[in-house]
Amino acid sequence: MANLTDLTDLMTEIRDRLADGGDWCSLEKAQALAAMVIGFRPRVVCEIGVWMGGSLVPMALALRKLRDLDVAAGRVPVARRAIAIDAWSPVASCDGQGETDAAWWRSVDHDAAHQAFSERLGRHGLSELCEVVRAPSDEAPVPEAIDLLHVDGNHAGQALRDIERFAPSVRSGGILVLDDVSWYGGHVALGRDAAEGLGFRELHALGTGVVMQRIKG
Q1: I want to staple 77 with a disulfide (CB 3.0 to 4.6 A). Which of 25, 30, 67, 191 is the partner?
Q2: What letters, b where the CB count within 10 A reaches 16 and e where it falls short, cover 173-196?
Q3: Which residues, in sequence order, are CB contacts of 130 under 8 Å at separation 6+?
Q4: 57, 120 contact by CB (below 8 A)
Q5: What domains does the chain contain, in order, with CATH numbers?
Q6: Calpha distance 67→193 (Å, rounded)
Q7: Residues 6+ apart with CB under 8 A from 3
Q8: Helix or strand or coil: residue 152?
């Protein structure tokens, strides 16, 4: 069981390492995601839309903390993993975007973002805990069972497809986190509605997104 010192150390580490991933994830959201990992103790965390790991790395750090707590208590560590899904591709990033956003995505170096993420995993001792899937989310394998799913990829029609494809694998009682529900085009909001049809219920807002839990399914 994590004590206050364990949690304080984890939250401090997340704060100190957050800038490595750029400004894609706020400290509030990064620490909230990590707290969910500690509280729900997922075996499988899956994230769609990773970029440089602004939100994936905090969750992986929390998975590592759970492993370390098992070891410290003399227990065999529970097998836990994070699955990081991202095409790191301008084509995938631009699909369905307005011209301003598409122009920005075409201007940034996707290979460099992938390399930065990979280096962060190695630098923070997280490589063994993280399975990296460099592929469009339409082509990535869907895990049989997911305990915590974070959907933060392309916010156009892809967002709805990602929720329809991956959310059915979230276990009953599992967590779904959606980013930017009010994004223009309404696709993420439609995804939230689709999740409700799959038995998810909204728990609370998290930044520009929402946290949902699967009650039925």
Answers
A1: 67
A2: ebbbbbbbbebeeebbbbbbebbe
A3: 56, 60, 81, 82, 83, 84, 121
A4: yes
A5: 4-214 (3.40.50.150)
A6: 35
A7: none
A8: coil
Please write the tens of the pLDDT for every residue from 180-203.
Answer: 999 999 999 999 999 999 999 999
Count Cα neighbours of 179 within 13 Å in the Cβ-side half-sphere.
Answer: 23
Angle at 13 between CA 88 and CA 178, to 5 degrees: 45
Band (213; pLDDT cuts 50, 70, 90): very high
| 11-56 pLDDT per residue, tens | 999 999 998 888 889 999 999 999 999 999 999 999 999 999 999 9
Q: Where are the alpha helices (DSSP H) in 79-133?
A: 90-94, 99-107, 110-123
Q: How far apart are the first and last CA of the chain?
A: 29
**Whether the predicted model's global pTM rises above the 0.85 cut:** yes
pLDDT band at 2 (very low <50, low <70, confident <90, very high): low
Q: How many CB atoms lie within 10 A of CB 32?
A: 17
Contact 183, 201 (CB under 8 A): no
Q: How far is residue 21's CA from residue 19's CA, in Å, rounded to a whole number? A: 5
